[in-house]
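Thread amino acids onto this structure.
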């Protein structure tokens, strides 16, 4: 099948990757469609991705009413922004949400305001959120298993660290792990890993515990939301853990040396522009870096008693 809207993952039968063109960039953020007897959509992208999802389903011969599960790994808008809109067009689907994220999808007002503060001028790229009726939501906390038929099974793995309301998904038949943001952003064609440590609830030690938990599974593939399917899962998990530790320590050291949170943010913006400017425009990179630095500074203040001025 020659698909225009979604790319077949040759290594994993019946799995399709849809490039959501997040922030206007190719191969930065996406979502997955698993064409099992009970089809599932893993992640939703922003609200303006929904038309692309529906086009992909049509190409695959999947009717919206056949979708059994819609699975945003957490409620950040690049993962769950389309969930409410998809709920309306996929009337039989359960929207599977970590129990700590459920209130934010029933009433997204507070979440939207938090995102506006975090991303500033980039917010127009984030689209909208529409509320989801409570009876459409399946609240999970980790350990649940969803049977999709033909041997496909999705296991929910509680995965705090990036956010307390995050889960990952393990597909047992293919031994594929859908990472959400628990293993950062990985773009092989760019610079490999970049960190994603957003406010208000990034937690370093919880991130390490999550990575330890993920290593315990028998893995063949990592399916990144940002972006794509990668082999050598254990090597990538180890690499991300090392880089995450270096990132947290470097931000702490910069805060001690510079003494001012805004100066720390600007320091890392300039550093990242030099290293990543060929791959990410400054309009995107600046607020992303500032947001990720702020997430680490809040963690240091909350968990280590460090006072960013």
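Threaded sequence (309 positions):
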């Amino acid at each position: 099948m020659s698909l225009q809207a979604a790319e077949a993952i040759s290594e994993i039968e019946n799995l399709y990757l849809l490039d959501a063109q997040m922030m206007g960039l190719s191969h930065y953020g996406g979502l997955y469609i698993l064409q099992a007897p009970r089809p599932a959509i893993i992640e939703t992208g922003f609200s303006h991705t929904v038309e692309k999802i529906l086009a992909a389903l049509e190409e695959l011969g999947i009717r919206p009413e056949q979708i059994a599960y819609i699975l945003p790994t957490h409620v950040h808008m690049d993962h769950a922004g389309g969930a409410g809109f998809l709920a309306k067009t996929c009337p039989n689907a359960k929207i599977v949400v970590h129990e700590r994220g459920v209130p934010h999808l029933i009433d997204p007002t507070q979440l939207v305001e938090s995102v506006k503060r975090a991303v500033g001028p980039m917010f127009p790229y984030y689209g909208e959120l529409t509320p989801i009726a409570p009876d459409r939501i399946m609240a999970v906390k980790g350990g649940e298993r969803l049977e999709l038929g033909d041997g496909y099974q999705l296991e929910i793995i509680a995965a705090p660290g990036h956010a307390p309301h995050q889960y990952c998904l393990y597909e047992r038949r293919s031994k594929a792990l859908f990472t959400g943001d628990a293993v950062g952003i990985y773009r092989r064609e760019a610079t490999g890993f970049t960190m994603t440590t957003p406010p208000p609830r990034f937690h370093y030690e919880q991130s390490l515990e999550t990575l330890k938990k993920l290593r315990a599974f028998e893995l063949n593939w990592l399916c990144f939301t940002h972006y794509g399917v990668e082999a050598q899962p254990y090597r990538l998990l180890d690499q991300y853990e090392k880089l995450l530790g270096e990132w947290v320590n470097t931000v702490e050291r910069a805060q001690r040396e510079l003494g001012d949170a805004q100066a720390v943010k600007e320091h890392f913006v300039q550093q990242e522009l030099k290293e990543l400017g060929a791959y990410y425009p400054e309009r995107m990179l600046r607020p992303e870096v500032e947001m990720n630095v702020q997430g680490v500074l809040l963690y240091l203040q909350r968990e280590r008693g460090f006072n960013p001025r």
